[in-house]
Design brief:
By secondary structure, the chain is an alpha/beta fold. It has one domain: Rossmann fold, CATH 3.40.50. It is built from seven helices and eight strands; from the N terminus they run βββαβαβαβααβαβα. The chain has helices spanning 50-58, 75-89, 105-116, 134-139, 146-151, 187-195, 220-230; strands at residues 7-10, 18-22, 31-35, 63-66, 98-103, 122-128, 172-178, 200-204. Strands 1-2-4-3-5-6-7-8 form an eight-stranded mixed β-sheet, sandwiched between helices. The longest helix has 15 residues, at 75-89. The model is unreliable at 234-238 (pLDDT under 50).
Length: 238
């Protein structure tokens, strides 16, 4: 049976402006704002992250798994939802700050938010196999043209939405990527770190795209370790 969140809350009035809340018995940890992937397409939602969110709660993390609008050719809907969700959710549960974490297209949104609209209490960002370079992802034709579908234009026209082309993000930034990722190549994360050398890239051998969000995978302990490090705040990881 799929694990259920403790509560589903709204951060706006639209149907997709909701988040699953996972409340541990006790916490002194930051709130993880968890952002799902799916190449920004409407058929993929936050529900596939529930095992991950439940596992994090069991380890003492408060989690808010965010839903957001996934509208073809309207990327500003997703961006606006991220802004609004962070404003509302940052004070939802007690904890020591906010830690952004996202997978795949959710990793793109996490890195974007860390630069474009970071909450004041952001401690760090952990991007799991992120689509971190929209121009490179477009040129590679990822997921049958997902970038153009999302943006409704060539990514060169929207540098404001491309993490690799944005200013330095606030807090620690860690990217985790598997060498066997067939969905989002490791080169996406390498490109981001070249543009933002204060960020740290963790490369996991023999690891695919979805292992990073699977609590039963061999990659999971390293994901947790990096979340713990980024959640400490206090500067950028080198």
């Amino acid at each position: 049976m799929e694990p259920e969140p403790d509560e589903i809350v709204r951060y706006g009035s639209l149907p997709d402006q909701v988040a699953d809340l996972w409340r541990p018995a006790e916490t002194g940890r930051p709130l993880i704002v968890l952002i799902h992937g799916g190449f920004w397409r409407a058929r993929y939602d936050r529900l596939h992250l529930r095992p991950m969110a439940a596992a994090l709660r069991a380890q003492g993390w408060p989690v808010a798994a965010v839903e957001y609008r996934r509208l073809t050719g309207n990327p500003d809907a997703a961006a606006d939802d991220m802004r609004q969700a962070l404003m509302v959710l940052a004070g939802t549960m007690p904890g020591k700050g906010v830690l952004l974490a996202g997978h795949s297209a959710g990793g793109h949104l996490a890195l974007w938010a860390a630069s474009a609209c970071p909450p004041a209490n952001l401690t760090g960002t952990v991007a799991l196999a992120p689509v971190a370079d929209l121009v490179a992802a477009h040129d590679a034709g990822l997921s049958n043209g997902a970038v153009t579908e999302f943006l409704g234009d060539h990514p060169g026209a929207r540098p404001d939405l491309d993490p690799v082309r944005l200013s330095e993000p606030r807090g620690r930034v860690v990217l985790i990527h598997g060498t066997e990722d067939a969905d989002v190549p490791l080169g996406m994360s390498r490109s981001y770190v070249r543009a933002h050398p204060a960020a740290r890239l963790v490369v996991l051998p023999d690891t695919g795209h979805f292992a990073l969000i699977d609590p039963a995978s061999k990659a999971w302990p390293r994901v947790v370790t990096e979340l713990e490090g980024a959640g400490c705040g206090g500067g950028r990881a080198g």
